[in-house]
Amino acid sequence: MKLAIVTAYPPSKVTLNEYAYHLVKHFRLKEEITELILLTDRTEEGKDIQFEEAGCKISIKECWSFNSYKNIFSVTHALNKTKPDAVLFNLQFMKFGDKKIAAALGLMLPLVCKLKRIPNIVLLHNILEEVDLGSAGFTSNKFMQKIYGFIGSTLTRLILQADTVAVTMQKYVTILEDKYNANNVKLIPHGTFEIPEEPDYKVPTSPMQIMTFGKFGTYKKVESMIEAVVKVRQTTGLDLEVVIAGTDNPNVPGYLAQVQEDYKNVPQVRFTGYVEEHEVPTLFNESAVVVFPYTSTTGSSGVLHQAGSYGKAVVMPDLGDLALLVQDEGYRGEFFEPMSVDSLAHAIENIVTNDEYRMELGQLNYKAATAHPMSEIAQMYINTFNAIINSRMNTESVEVPSINL
Length: 405
What we know:
By secondary structure, the protein is α/β, with parallel strands linked by helices. It has helices spanning 17-27, 71-82, 100-106, 109-115, 142-159, 170-180, 223-236, 255-262, 280-285, 302-309, 320-329, 341-352, 355-369, 374-397, and strands spanning 2-7, 35-41, 57-64, 86-91, 120-124, 164-167, 185-187, 208-216, 240-248, 269-273, 287-291, 313-317, 334-336. The protein folds into two domains: 2-191 and 373-397, Rossmann fold (3-Layer(aba) Sandwich); 208-369, Rossmann fold (3-Layer(aba) Sandwich), CATH 3.40.50. α8 (255-262) links the parallel β9 (240-248) and β10 (269-273).
C-alpha cells in the first residue's frame, strides 16, 4: 500500500506534529506499507525522517502552510501528482489555521478524497462538542460561541464524508453517532508513543522535579502550578523545582514570557522552551510528578500517555476527557479542583511526601500505557484501510443484471 499522510511534521510547530512522527515511525516498519508519502506543512529546516531501523521508502511533499487559503488546492495537486492508494488525515479543527476560512478550507480535503475515490481515514483528535470554546482560546462571547457551534457542526459533517473517521475516545463515537447519525465512526485509541523498558521508578530528589509539558496560555495555565509548589515547599520543606516544558499556544503569544517575568522572584522555576524529540526521555525520566494544570480539556491527552510510558505519577484536574481516560484506559493519579491552588497543592503534596505511593501510581500508569503501543495503533489503521478497499472492490464487482423489455 502506498499511503499518504496529510499532517504537520517535525520540525513543524503546528499541533499534532509529534503524533505524526510516531505514526510514521511505526507505519514504515509494516510489511503492508510499500511507501509513505508525507504531505506536510512547509518548514525552513528539513523534516526529521532519520530512524534507526530500516523501513519502507518515505517521500516528503511540503504542500501546505498554516493559515493559507490555498491549502485545499496545493494538497489536491500533491495528491494528483503522487497518486497514493490511501490517505490518512491527522487532524483537529485548527490544524490548517486559526483563521476561520483557512481552517475550514483545509478541512474540506477529506471530501476531495471522497470525490476522487481515494480511500481515506480522518484521525480526528477532538470534537467541538467537547471543547470549552472560552477556555480553549476561541471566544468567550456567548453569541460567537453559538456561531462557532454552527460552523463546527457544518465542518464536522464535511469531515464525516471520509470513508472512516477515527476518534480516540468512546464518548466521541457516541456523540458523533447520536448527533450526526454517522455510521462510519470508529474508536482507535490514541496509543503510546514509546514503550521504554520498565523503569525502576527512582527519581532525583535534589531537587525533586515537578513538571508540566505542552503549549500554554489558553486552557493550560501554569500560574496555579507555580503557586501550588510554593505552598508545598512551605508545608514540607522539600527541595522542589518547577519545570515548565513547552511553548506558548499560538493563540496566546508571549504568555510564558509574561509568566516568567511575573514569577521571577520565585526560586527554582525553569522554562525549557521547545523540547526536541530526543530530549523527551530525559525530561520525563528526571521528573517525579507530571502535572496537568488545565481548566478544560480538548481531547485525549498525548502527554498523559507519554507520562505513563515513563512510569510517572500524575496530577490531573477532575474534569472532561482526562477523567474519562482514567476510567476507560486504566490511568491513575491524584485529582484536584481546576480553579483551586490549595487543591492542586494538596494533590502534589500527597505524591511527593509518599515515595511508595508515587511509585505505585507510576507502575499503574506504565501498565496502562503499554496496553496500546503505537505499533498496534498503526496496524489498526492498516486493517481499517484494507476493510475500506475490500468493501469498495466488492461493491464495484456486483453486476447489475440487464432487463430485456
